[in-house]
Specification:
Layout: H1 3-13, H2 18-30, H3 32-37, H4 39-43, H5 46-50, E1 55-64, E2 70-81, E3 87-93, H6 99-116, E4 121-127, H7 136-150, E5 159-162, H8 169-183, H9 206-220, E6 230-234, H10 238-249, E7 253-254, E8 256-259, E9 262-265, H11 272-285, E10 307-310, E11 321-324, H12 333-341, E12 346-348, H13 357-365, E13 369-371, H14 373-376, H15 379-393, H16 399-423, H17 430-448
Parallel strand pairs: 3-4, 3-5, 6-7, 6-11, 11-12, 12-13
Antiparallel strand pairs: 1-2, 2-4, 8-9, 9-10
Helix pairs in contact: 1-2, 2-6, 6-17, 7-8, 9-10, 9-15, 9-16, 10-11, 12-13, 15-16, 16-17
Length: 452
């Protein structure tokens, strides 16, 4: 079966799962030169096997709200591929969560984890539960009931979930506490844990920092650097927060942040006190980004100088670099045209698959430096892997040690993707390079382990 025939089969078998089909199509099309070079993969049906999850778990999650009413949500865990290590991937709590979205995320995770060089397979999970607007007690009760089923399927050498959209330190704490109670074991079953109970320094910062480190490596190939560059960032959650912090530390000017309701534009660039206000707004008060306008963000009462654009994305402003850090398919073809017209020279994805196929085609056609999510945002899972290492050896590394290891991993991911793109006839195309480099390690491992 050739690649196009397999894509058609995937579309038929996974009808309506548009995000999953989109992810599969992007990866498989870039693997055509690999299959020609390695006929043993075709004989072993590696592609046919890699697009099928090893296991899909779906379950109901009943829980009681603060009014005493029973609510029911749906929980998932997609254990996609364990050829190079235990399943590893985040948990997402968001109303948009469904089987297709989690399969897309789990599929991407296979190659992302492979690129880190760490022994981690690919998985993903979550629920259509929305933590926004819920009390801490409601979130705790949901997490405890969610873990009441999930605990049967995970473990330090089986499947190690982490956080994602809607699952931060609070949720990881509730989930870990319930796992510990149900199993009577304190073990490395979740990453993103609190630093007092097995967590790693730099884990909260890792995805955002890693995305900026990757961007810096892309710019170096053109003799450029981040210092002085104008940066558009979407989102205001964990990835956007720390991507903006690291970009500022490296001398860039961060012009935008956003949430589901709209975008703030900061003409003079975010200042340190502005960033601190956003951190407090989003992580403690759990407010909306529009509240930044005119807010007092210093003890002296200095106002947050920014403009708010209701219902708009950040992509219409002039800038040098775009870091989409919100969600899938947030940059359409029309958005990509705006970015290109406004002088963007590099796009690095802090979110998973935030650019549509039309947008990606435009980046490549216009010679925009483009870092796909499975490479550019691999920093989060890389430090999750480092957290697992620290748990296993019973030691905690310093912030500087972990940050240096993260930086080295991101540099190596860029180098590997760039070299692989040249090796397979698409020099500079990091989509091709990342997909092939991530695939080869997994494919060879699947070959070694037989038909399982």
């Amino acid at each position: 079966m050739n690649v196009q025939e397999l894509i058609e089969k995937v579309e038929q078998k996974n009808f309506g799962e548009k995000e999953f089909i989109q992810a599969v199509k992007e990866v498989l099309e870039s693997l055509e030169p690999v299959i020609k070079k390695h006929p043993e993969y075709e004989k072993a049906k590696i592609l046919e096997r890699i697009v099928e999850p090893e296991r899909v778990v779906m379950f109901r999650v009943p829980w009681m709200d603060d009014n005493g009413d029973i609510q029911v949500n749906r929980g998932f865990r997609i254990e996609f591929n364990s050829a190079i290590g235990p399943y590893k991937g985040g948990l997402r709590f968001h109303p948009s969560v469904n089987l297709g979205i989690l399969k897309f995320l789990g599929f991407e995770q296979i190659f992302k984890n492979s690129l880190t060089g760490l022994p981690m397979g690919g998985g993903k999970g979550g629920s259509d539960f929305d933590p926004k607007g819920k009390s801490d007690n409601e979130v705790m009760r949901f997490c405890q009931n969610f873990m009441g089923e999930l605990f049967r399927h995970i473990g330090p050498n089986t499947d190690v979930p982490a956080g994602d959209i809607g699952v931060g330190g609070r949720e990881i704490g509730f989930l870990f506490g319930q796992y510990k109670k149900l199993t009577n074991r304190f073990e490395s079953v979740l990453t993103g844990k609190g630093k007092n109970w097995g967590g790693s320094l730099v884990r909260p910062e890792a995805t955002g920092y890693g995305c900026v480190y990757f961007t810096s490596e892309m710019l170096k190939t053109k003799g450029e650097e981040l210092k002085g560059k104008r940066v558009l960032i979407s989102g205001a959650g964990n990835v956007a927060q720390f991507a903006s912090q690291k970009a500022m530390q490296l001398g860039a000017k961060v012009l935008t942040l956003s949430d589901a309701n709209g975008t703030i534009y900061v003409p003079d660039g975010l200042a340190k006190e502005n960033w601190e206000y956003v951190m407090e707004l989003k992580n403690i008060r759990r407010g909306r980004i529009k509240e930044c306008v005119g807010a007092e963000c210093t003890e002296g009462g200095e106002e947050f100088q920014c403009e708010y654009y209701d219902g708009e994305k950040p992509w219409k402003f002039e800038a040098d670099i775009a870091l989409p850090c919100a969600t899938q398919n947030e940059i359409t073809g029309d958005d990509a045209k705006k970015l290109i017209d406004n002088g963007i020279i590099a796009v690095a994805e802090g979110a998973n698959m935030p650019s549509t196929p039309e947008a990606i085609d435009l980046y490549l056609a216009n010679k925009i430096l483009y870092g796909p999510g499975k490479a550019a945002n691999a920093g989060g899972v890389a430090v999750s892997g480092l957290e697992m290492c620290q748990n296993h050896i019973g030691l905690s590394w310093s912030f500087e040690e972990v940050d240096q290891k993260l930086h080295d991993i991101m540099v190596n991911i860029h180098k590997t993707a760039l070299e692989t793109s040249k090796m397979y006839g698409s020099p500079g195309n990091l989509v091709v390079g990342a997909n092939i480099a991530g695939f080869l390690k997994v494919a060879d491992s699947m070959q070694d382990q037989g038909v399982v």
